[in-house]
């Protein structure tokens, strides 16, 4: 039976994210808010949530560069040590992602007490991942997934549309630079790929025992539910 969950450590992540949304609505122009709502609805309409790997599916194996050590981290090696919690996030430019990472930072001891390991994966390059670790004091590995190739195996990857690209440029979020060190003129299609933010728990037999991701980047899996799966 899983250990009891420390309620003080699992105060609702969604409440924190909802406060970001409320502050954004108070500060951002209505036309920008309307654009964001439209793009979320359009992404949901693609059916991407239906393609996400489900509980009971076999997890894809992966080997990705760790920003802290510069070395490859293999999922098989991690699973040999215990269950694995895998968090996919968009990038350090996303306040929702940063809030989620900081929540898991504060829960890292809880994860380890259950014999599990935690890794976070993003398309941003190792240098950006290293900045993220330093700025937010993250104790777990941040792994670089160029072009969201591993995220695609989990059913999470999508490409930023041309309209969204112009929008990101207008708010000074340079996704190609963050992901691949490229400017807008030299950006490749792969550098415009992002994952849905999501969390998977993988058992030592490589079976997914928890799976949750959303087309709406403002919604994230609650840590209490993730921990309960361990």
What attributes characterize this protein structure?
17% strand; alpha+beta; Glutaredoxin; single chain; 230 residues; disordered N terminus; seven-stranded mixed β-sheet
CATH topology: Glutaredoxin
User: Treating each run of at least 4 consecutive H or I residues as one helix, how many helices?
Assistant: 10
How many whole angstroms does the radius of gyration measure?
Answer: 17 Å
The CATH superfamily title: Glutaredoxin
Task: Write the H/E string, N to C.
Answer: HHEEHEHHEHEHEHHEEEH
Number of domains: 1
Gross CATH architecture: 3-Layer(aba) Sandwich
List the strand order in the largest sheet: 2-1-5-4-3-8-9
Question: Averaging pLDDT over every residue, what do you get?
Answer: 94
Give the low-confidence spans: 1-10
Helix content: 25-40%
CATH class group: Alpha Beta
Describe this structure in words.
- The protein has 230 residues and is an alpha+beta fold.
- It has a single domain (10-228), classed as 3-Layer(aba) Sandwich (Glutaredoxin).
- The protein is 40% helix and 17% strand.
- It has helices at residues 13-27, 30-45, 75-79, 95-106, 108-113, 126-136, 149-153, 162-170, 175-180, 223-228; strands at residues 63-66, 72-74, 84-88, 117-122, 142-144, 157-159, 193-195, 198-202, 208-213.
- It has a 7-stranded mixed β-sheet. Strands 6-7 form a two-stranded antiparallel ribbon.
- Strand 8 (198-202) and strand 9 (208-213) form a beta hairpin.
- The protein is globular, with a radius of gyration of 17 Å.
- The N and C termini lie close together (9 Å).
């Amino acid at each position: 039976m899983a250990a009891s969950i420390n309620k003080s450590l699992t105060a609702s992540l969604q409440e924190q994210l909802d406060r970001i949304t409320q502050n954004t609505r108070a500060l951002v122009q209505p036309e920008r808010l309307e654009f964001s709502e439209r793009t979320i609805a359009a992404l949901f309409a693609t059916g991407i949530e239906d393609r996400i790997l489900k509980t009971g599916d076999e997890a894809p194996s992966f080997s990705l560069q760790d920003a802290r050590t510069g070395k490859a981290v293999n999922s098989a090696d991690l699973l040999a040590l215990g269950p694995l919690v895998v968090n996919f996030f968009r990038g350090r430019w996303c306040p929702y992602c940063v809030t989620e990472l900081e929540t898991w930072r504060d829960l890292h001891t809880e994860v380890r007490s259950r014999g599990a390991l935690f890794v976070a994966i993003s398309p941003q390059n190792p240098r950006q991942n290293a900045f993220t670790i330093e700025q937010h004091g993250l104790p777990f590995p941040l792994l670089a997934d160029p072009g969201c190739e591993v995220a695609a195996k989990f059913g999470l990857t999508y490409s930023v549309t041309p309209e969204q690209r112009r929008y990101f440029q207008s708010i000074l979020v340079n996704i190609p630079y963050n992901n691949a060190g490229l400017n807008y003129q030299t950006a490749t299609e792969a550098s415009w790929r992002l994952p849905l933010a999501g969390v998977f728990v993988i058992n030592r037999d490589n079976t997914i025992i928890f799976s949750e991701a959303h087309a709406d980047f403002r919604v994230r899996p609650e840590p209490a539910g993730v921990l309960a799966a361990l």
